[in-house]
Amino acid sequence: MAELVGLTGNDAGAEALKDVNPDVAAVFPITPQTELMHQFSSYVNDGEVDTELVPVESEHSAQSACFGSAASGARTVTATSSQGLLLMAEICYITAGTRLPVVMPVVNRALSGPINIHCDHSDAMGCRDTGWIQIYSENAQEVYDNTIQAFRIGEHKDVLLPVMSCLDGFILSHTMESVEVIGREAVQGFVGEYDPAFSLLDTQSPISIGPLHLTDYYFECKRQEVEAMENARQVILDVGKEFGELTGRGYGFFEEYRLDDADVAIVALGSTCGTAKAAADQARDKGIKAGVLKLRVFRPFPGDEIAEVISRMGAVAVMDRAVSFGLKGGPLFNEVRSFANGGCPNLINYVYGLGGRDINATEIESIFHELEKIKDTGQTGELYRYIGLRE
C-alpha cells in the first residue's frame, strides 16, 4: 500500500533498495553518499532485508565486490560519490563490458582538486563513457522511483548493463521531502525475481569471466555493448510507462514543462530543474513564454528527441553543472549541440553551480530574459557563458 513519508534523498535511495531487497550490497562511506548506505545497513542489521552486506576498504574494492557478486548471478548494489566513483572507474568499465546489471545510486559531488564536498556533476560526467546507463533525479520522489526502475532497465535481457541513479549531493541527499513509497510487495512485484543471464556458479554451463580479448574479439564485444545501450532506449520508455501504470508517475527520457507554447527554453539536469520551473513561471508573469526541458536520461543520450523539442524554440540555453576542459562549454551542451543540426540556431550554454555554488530562481529568470533578446535579434553573442561566477 502506498504511503506518504518524509525522506531525504539518501533515505529515498535506501528505501528503494530496501523494497527491492537485493542479494548483495558492497558498502563504503564517502560524503555525501554515506547516509544512504548507513541507512540501508541499518535495514540489514534490523533484519528488514536479507541482503549480504559486504563492508570493504575502498570504492575500488566495492565495485570489485559488485563485479564478483553480479558475475555469480546475484542482484547487486552499491553507492558512491565523487572521488569514490573515480576510484571505481576501472571496474566500472569492466562491469559494463562484462554486461553485469549492477545498480548504483551516485550522489553527485564535485571532483578534486581543490577538495570540495558539494554538488556538481563532474563525477558522473567523468564516467559518462564507462558504459553505464545514467538517470538523474529532480527530487527525492524521483530518487526512489528511478532507483527502483533501474533494476528493471539494467536487468532486461536486451540490455544487461549497469545503471547509475544520480542525485545531487546535499541539495537532494540531505534535504527532506514528502515521498510516496509503494512498499515491498508492490516493488518486488514490479522488479520481479532476478533471472541472471549467466552465472559463474552454474557448473552445468561453465563460462569464462574477464577473458583476454585482443584483436580477435575486443572490437566485437564493444559493438555488442553499443547495441545494448541502444536497446536500453525502448526499455527505459517501456519501464517508465509501466511504472506510471503502477504509481501514477510515468517517466520518459525527459519532462517538458510549459513547452507547448514556449518561445524560449532551458535544458538542464537534476535538482536545478525545480528552480528552473519556478524561474519559468516568474518569466511568464513578465510576458516571456518560457519553459524547461528537464532531462532525466543522460545515457543513452536522447539526442534526436531533444532536437525535435528544441527545434520549436526561438532560443535555448543548456545549463551545465560540469565543464569540459579544452572544449568550450559543458558536456551536456556539446551533446545537445551535436544533435541540433541547425534546428535551433540560437543555442547557448551556461555553466553554473560548480562546487555546490547556489543558483536561485532570479538568476535563472535572467537567462530567460537573455534568451528573449536573442530570439528577437537573432544574435547569440558569446555562446559559452558562466552564471554565478566571480570573474
Beta percentage is: 15-25%
Low-confidence stretches: none
List the total number of helices.
Answer: 12
Taken in chain order, the helices and strands follow as: EHEHEHEHEHEHEEHHEEHEEHEHEHE
Percent helix: 40-55%
List keywords for this structure.
391 residues, 6-stranded mixed beta sheet, 4-stranded mixed beta sheet, alpha/beta
Walkthrough of the structure:
- The structure is a single chain.
- With 391 residues, this protein is α/β, with parallel strands linked by helices.
- It is 41% helix and 19% strand.
- The chain contains twelve helices and 15 strands.
- The strands form four sheets. Strands 9-11-10-13-14-15 form a six-stranded mixed sheet, with helices on both faces. A four-stranded mixed sheet has the order 5-7-6-12.
- α9 packs across α12.
- The protein is globular and about 70 Å long.
- The model has no long low-confidence stretch (mean pLDDT 97).
Present the secondary structure layout.
Layout: E1 3-8, H1 9-20, E2 24-27, H2 34-45, E3 52-55, H3 59-71, E4 76-77, H4 82-97, E5 103-108, H5 122-126, E6 133-136, H6 140-155, E7 163-168, E8 176-181, H7 183-191, H8 218-247, E9 254-257, E10 264-269, H9 272-285, E11 290-295, E12 297-299, H10 303-310, E13 315-320, H11 331-340, E14 347-352, H12 361-377, E15 384-387
Helix pairs in contact: 1-2, 1-6, 1-7, 3-4, 6-8, 9-12, 10-11
